[in-house]
């Protein structure tokens, strides 16, 4: 079963992945079918609102309000065959955010869902680029084959061209749109026939002895069969065969064709994740990498959700386990503060439920309720001073000033802003000059979400207004050089919630000038989370 027989079986059977797609391609539907076949839900439609409804603003706010739901949906664990799948959700709204990026640091692979009629869309492309930064293995699911879709070669070409990745067909669709009858499974020489009558029924699977097997003609109309033979012959000539190594290195993606809503092609995709992996991968850390099979437990925080319950300022830190076998009640060292932490009520996320995690293995995602000690990027170990790396913070692309509706509440506002900054929901900068704060985000919708959460969770109406600045850069360099630079550029200087120095400006010209005039400091659009 495992490609890594040297791993403890509990680790070898884990698959931790995310689904990336453009809105409407079918991510929610596919997730739901995964849960259905994983036995985590009884019936499709049980998980959460679908596509459009979920994305409308009011619904998004409602979801934000209903923190329980969005938390459960952030990570879902379920079993399939011998495998334990951990599916980590990428944020549902379309503003690309660093939240998405950080989520992808917690997974070992991604499924890219595309709509067969639309091909590679903008959001897919962006998310794909993020996966590429980490060389994540990608499995592709071409969805909605029950509808009119594009020519298969055209779709494959587009993926190869736009994403610069080799594509190998794992299945080949038979017929298009109304004529679509199913797929030929190229990896296992089987015919999979779609049942249009029952959307939750798994396809009928017929063993076939190659494309010349007379059995094919019993199930596939003659004109489609001719076309299938011709296309598969061409595909085998033109497209590379599956190369496990290239897949694991992220340079080749196998593609399955299917229809999530009709439960078609979903199991084959799940089998693909199971069979080809990858298993939990090593985690980059300083001063050394962490291997999943290490006996000692370690993990890192990739996401924090605050104010689950507005009455208590509690948060849940989402921790990806990097190594070992964790058991509830264990004492782990919080490396940043060097303090021990007893992890007594960690949670696991099972579809729409949360339950206490009695144990967890490398690859799993657990939630740790805490009072703010755990921040994004923090590492937990059994004592060794390891620091997980590669969880960056991006410079925000939109800046606005923020003020409390009631000036007497300025202190409260500060507290709220700092909490959101720690959660990673926004960047908060305190300019050296004047009063007030500058808030930075990646997508405009985040301002509204922030305003609504500050009001909801802290009872503080706030106003955002235009800021004189449009760009923020972290100032790196020796302590003296940074101080000297800050003193000479006070109008532009601010500190972030960690106390790090930031340069604010509205002109690229300023940034170029600093780079020219101050060779001892560098301005950077990212910083590693500490
Ligand atoms: P998303 O999370 O990626 O945004 O997509 P979602 O699953 O919500 O699917 C978007 C729309 O596409 C939904 O229709 C869904 O039913 C439909 N869909 C998903 N998979 C398939 C498929 O295999 N074939 C076809 N024909 N449609 C599919 P909707 O009208 O927005 O919602 P609903 O009324 O169906 O709930």
UniProtKB/TrEMBL annotation:
Q: Where is the Tr-type G domain?
A: 12-281
For this protein, the record's InterPro entries field holds: EF-G-like_DII, EFG_III/V, G_TR_CS, P-loop_NTPase, PrfC, RF3_C, RF3_dom_3_sf, RF3_GTP-bd
Keyword Cell division listed? The answer is no
One GO term in the molecular function aspect is: guanosine tetraphosphate binding
Q: Which Pfam families match?
A: EF-G_D2 (PF22042), GTP_EFTU (PF00009), RF3_C (PF16658)
Q: Which CDD domains match?
A: RF3 (cd04169)
Q: Which GO terms describe its biological process?
A: regulation of translational termination
Major location category of this protein:
cytoplasm
Function, as annotated: Increases the formation of ribosomal termination complexes and stimulates activities of RF-1 and RF-2. It binds guanine nucleotides and has strong preference for UGA stop codons. It may interact directly with the ribosome. The stimulation of RF-1 and RF-2 is significantly reduced by GTP and GDP, but not by GMP.
PANTHER family noted in UniProt? PEPTIDE CHAIN RELEASE FACTOR RF3 (PTHR43556)
Q: Which family does it belong to?
A: Belongs to the TRAFAC class translation factor GTPase superfamily. Classic translation factor GTPase family. PrfC subfamily.
This chain's protein is named: Peptide chain release factor 3
Q: Which organism is it from?
A: Pelagovum pacificum
